[in-house]
Structures
1.
Amino acid sequence: MSGNCNIILGIETSCDETSVAVLDNGTVNSNIISSQVVHKEYGGVVPELASRAHMKMIVPIMQEALAQADVSLEDVDAVAAVYGPGLVGALLVGLNFGKALAWARGIPFIGVNHMEGHIYSTFLEDEKPEYPFICLTVSGGHTDLLFIKEPLVYERLGRTRDDAAGEAFDKVAKMLGIGYPGGPVIDKLARDGNPGAISFPRSYAQAEHYDFSFSGLKTSVLYYLRDRDLLASDGKPVARSPKLNDICASFQEAIVDSLVEKTRRAVIDRDVKHVAVVGGVSANSRLREVFQLTASKTGVKVYFPRLEYCTDNAAMIAYAGWLRSQRGETSPASLTAIPNLNVA
Ligand SMILES: Nc1ncnc2c1ncn2[C@@H]1O[C@H](COP(=O)(O)OP(=O)(O)OP(=O)(O)O)[C@@H](O)[C@H]1O
Ligand SMILES: [Mg+2]
């Protein structure tokens, strides 16, 4: 395959979003996302329900993506679908759908690593990071600090040793009984709270390495709530405003401090001028604010995806697939889902 795949159909089904996008030469023409609501009552994603919902939605979402981009299946030059990491049943739906589509049309198929997709979500904007850059991926399942020297080449500097940042947001929201996913709710409540009200720990703040840890922070919030009889019971919040706002703001500040500090040090150590912050938690308003402040003081430019591209979406998958297709890369029909795939 040569580098003349212009129109790419991207497919994302790694967790609880069914998404299909159409990109023309790296420009997003459509990006349709169906977020599964079926999991809300369980306070987390139920894998089997996720697979079933993907099966139900994949065809209508693809049709909507094609219609919005004003192209037909015959116009598509290549198909890119996510093959890991993620929930195996959920991955299999999009991956097999994508492979079958490409095979039926006789066009190339490219399997995409979901985390590589997140990295390139900042490239969907007009202003893109320049190489080399540092990428902080903060999502529901990952907290990765990467050095990206050139396109599609990753060096891992650090990662979380326990919970991912998004997971910590979701678990603390559960303790507070304020709903799932927890990130957006905590973000909102924290706006009316005092980030200095409670001193929660910043793990590894002084450590030489670039790894993160959020389980100590989570336990600290748990003890704080338990000791004051504020733990949610039956999913109903016990804490009342303004205490709830202060808890959210103080917890969020501890996460933001840890993320910004390690990234700041990586930027200095690797002598880069560009930073990308991607994944669901990159939607966090306080994280964006502190990153912008820190970056402006040091002459560094920081890039965030727009909110639509922070959480799972097919546009980022199509973009990474397009980059690989330009190098002549394709994936074999035997490619299968890899739930624990790493990016570096
Ligand atoms: N405004 C916000 N502030 C903090 N966290 C947020 C915000 N918006 C979303 N999140 C968090 O982002 C996470 C979802 O992000 P994303 O969809 O990238 O994760 P995922 O795809 O489930 O995980 P992964 O990409 O690691 O496989 C959830 O944990 C959610 O709470
Ligand atoms: Mg994701």
2.
Amino acid sequence: MSEHHYLIRGGLEGRERLRVLGRVMRPTTLALLERAGVTSGMRVVDVGCGGGDVTFDLASLVGLTGSALGIDIDETKIELARADAEQVGVTNVEFRVGDLTDGLGEATYDAIYVRFVLTHLHDPQAAVDIMRRALRPGGRLIVEDIDFRGSFCEPEHPDFERYEEIYEESARRNGGDPWIALRVPAMLVAAGFARVQPNVVQPADLVGESKLMPALTLENIKATAIRHGVAGEEEIDRLVDVLYELAGDPRTYVANPRMVQVIGENAQPAD
Ligand SMILES: C[S@@+](CC[C@H](N)C(=O)[O-])C[C@H]1O[C@@H](n2cnc3c(N)ncnc32)[C@H](O)[C@@H]1O
């Protein structure tokens, strides 16, 4: 899968959106990693790691006796992540350019983390199978993904609804599934995972950074939405302005997509 087909803008601007998203998600992601038993000495991989926000948290959890590898198809994001690693002097982390669909090796890792990636893939079940094979028997797959149906704005606003429509339609025309989250638990069961534990989280607020996500997201899918004929530039620019206004209004309660966290244990022997 090439960068050309990815829904959300990559490179530097895409990285800045991920920094905000990373801060919004960090408390619930850290709680998830703890529940999944990510701990000192483990070999872990963060698939579709973007700028590596969670890869750094994984590196800190596994410590110097373990290692964290971040893989992403976006070369710019990987370069930025490498520069961040050098700057903070983290030595147990590595970032690599790579495509998940090309495989990850066999029975290699203690845990694999994958956030907001399956939603973009043409064949997410094949990706779950690939990750299962890359885990040692008993290793954990840890997934977070979105269900766009859960996002809301209260009071309701037609421009917010139009933003949801543009996102969902652009994602679909790009070969992804904006509602994938609710299907992920069954996908892990189908791939041969045991003790599959799903959990729902949803960043929603009257103030603060989570409210910026709809405007940032629409800005970053603009090129794809235009390419697929879902909306024009003028309409998107106007909607982005409205979404920033809603973010700044403390009477407006805005929720990001409902997110499902799933942990599964690889119950299969090494292939
Ligand atoms: C929405 S971002 C999420 C990044 C990161 N997981 C996070 O939560 O901050 C999705 C990432 O998946 C990467 N990606 C998409 N398809 C991929 C593939 N087939 N293999 C590896 N990375 C992929 C994109 O380049 C992008 O950085």
3.
Amino acid sequence: MAEIDFHIVKRSLTGWQDECGDTGVVVVSDNQCFLALLDVLGHGREAHEVALVAENYLLKNYSFKVTEIMSGLHERLKGTRGAVAALCSINIDNGELYYSGIGNINTRVHGYQTLQLMPQDGIIGYMINSPKERQFKLCYGDTLILTSDGVKEHINFADYPELLKGSAKTIANNMIDLFGKGNDDSSCIVLRYGI
Ligand SMILES: [Mn+2]
């Protein structure tokens, strides 16, 4: 089985962890790794409460197909202010990745190939089209990076040759330190595959 290294960083605008509307979940079970980054609309304590509801839902339902999880999350968050999220389920043995994303969470893969997984429009809990799944295969050495919109979107990684080196923890912290916008909660999940 391939080795993986992952890390979640979330930083609230106010500095208080219980006022962060961004949240991340990573669950490793057998040969599956589920990861999700979610940003509740707005920020502050109310957004945090919704983030906790979403987090609980994801922790209970991580083993389903990503499209099913997205639909279920939409039902669960109805009546709240809504959220955007990217969900990935990875087969650790062969690198197969299944992705479903709604709204502006940025999902990138760097390494053998460089690409961005494009989300669908919508607000989870309010209005979404039927969730679609995209399949991708991670190669040994690839780095998967998810960021919320509290982190700059357009980053020329060639300008930061050191950025993708080091552990998932180092990369995730650097993403927030270097590119956090400072006007919203910010969060990042980094997963290094086959290290
Ligand atoms: Mn945000």
4.
Amino acid sequence: MMDHVRVTRKVRDTPTVFSLYFNWNRDVEPGQFVMVWVPGHSEVPMSLSQTGKEKCLTIKMYGDTTKAMDALEPGDFIYIRGPYGKPFSRVKGKTLLIGGGSGMASLRPMINEDSTGILAARGKEELLFENEFHDGKAICVTEDGSRGIKGIITAGIDSVDLSGFSMIYVCGPERMLYAVYKNIQGKTENVEFSLERSMKCGIGLCDSCSVDGFEICRDGPTFNMKQVSEMEEFGRTRLDRSGKRIYF
Ligand code: FES
């Protein structure tokens, strides 16, 4: 069932990322996703960056629907159905949240006093939610060296002792997920990745999000280390909305 919600606040987080806040009377677990529709544009899957009573969609502009969402202002409506999919596992103890680019949006609801973040972006202006980590427990990695460690996200991972974390959560572009997977492989099994694919139904019926026998919408979007190791397509290819194969 599709709900319509009214935007209450709009915040520009980085030059290319913005957040729309709204009240929505549904329970959502961190890591689940919703299907979002703006009239006249394609419905798209998105994770929520805030899951309490006030909810939030944090959006990077990359296509028609997200550009249409950037034109929305407080008082305008967006249309949402869900939530769908498997949430992140909840664990006790210290957690590590690894977010590349706007990937930190889906991880934001998991931030608490026990979490450390590794945030990666091209430059400091695109680092997302650094200030939401408690006691400055955010390690920044930038490709241009404008903040924190200069390099790619694996340089941030190499700077921490992974054995100190009960669970590691990873979200971002799939090439980045794959680089993290290869870096962490053999060091710990306590890792969950959030995968993205083109989605149409969102409920396991249309097969548009299929990856090596997994439906990302129904079996994911969160997957553990063992599951991603079974996906030959992971980090290599995906299908676009028309079914054409795209190589990462
Ligand atoms: S979006 Fe239709 S099966 Fe996943």
